[in-house]
Amino acid sequence: MMFHSDKRRSLRVPVTCAVYYSNGAFHASGMTANLTHSGGCLQGSHGVEVGMELMVLVIPPTQSALLIRKATVRWVRDQFFGVQLDHDDTATSWELDQVAFDQRTPLSFMTH
Question: What domains sit in the chain, N to C, each tagged with a CATH number?
Answer without folding.
Answer: 13-103 (2.40.10.220)
